[in-house]
Amino acid sequence: MATAREIMHVGAECVRQDETLTAAAAKMGDLHVGALPILGADDRLQGIITDRDIVVRAVAKGLDPQETTVDKLSQRTPIWVDASADINDVLQAMEQNQVRRLPVIENQQVVGVISEADLATHLGARQVSEFASSVYSAPPNN
């Protein structure tokens, strides 16, 4: 059975909790990604920020992205898996929490991220279908 380490995108870039939404959005644009893990001052995972968070939870509500820091949008306990987690645990975490991107942790550090694209390229059609049905049938979690 595959593990999180085997299907993750290695070397995920992160954003610091005190960086602005503008800086986070620029980093996403430069990296061609839609989400970045958020690290605290201790370099530990504090959450994840998505392009949707920036638009729907900040800009649309009138927050200034040049002044607002990413920690203002980090609202819950981060969802993550250990690098040694088996693929069934990965799918369970993503489906239960209705997330499309999942940070992978090893020795308390972010070592990668698993995205929908990673699932699509590493899993069978049945597993991808079950994941998509579970996550896309749920209302947005903003």
Structure, described:
It is a single chain. The chain is α/β, with parallel strands linked by helices. The chain has one domain: CBS-domain. The chain has six helices and seven strands. The protein has a four-stranded mixed beta sheet with strand order 1-7-6-5. A three-stranded mixed beta sheet has the order 2-3-4. A hairpin with a 5-residue loop joins strand 3 (35-39) and strand 4. Helix 4 runs parallel beside helix 6 (125-136). The chain is globular. The mean pLDDT is 90.
Helix-strand layout with pairing:
Elements: H1 4-7, E1 9-10, E2 15-16, H2 21-31, E3 35-39, E4 45-50, H3 51-58, E5 81-82, H4 87-97, E6 101-106, E7 109-115, H5 116-122, H6 125-136
Parallel strand pairs: 2-3, 5-6
Antiparallel strand pairs: 1-7, 3-4, 6-7
Helix pairs in contact: 4-6
What labels would you give this structure?
three-stranded mixed sheet, CBS-domain, 142 residues, alpha/beta, single chain, four-stranded mixed sheet, 6 helices
Order of helices and strands: HEEHEEHEHEEHH
Which stretches are poorly predicted, pLDDT < 50 over at least 5 residues? none
**Structural class computed from helices and strand pairing:** alpha/beta
Give the C-alpha Rg. 15 Å
Give the C-level CATH assignment: Alpha Beta
The first-to-last residue Cα distance is: 33 Å
Label the overall shape: globular
CATH topology-level name = CBS-domain
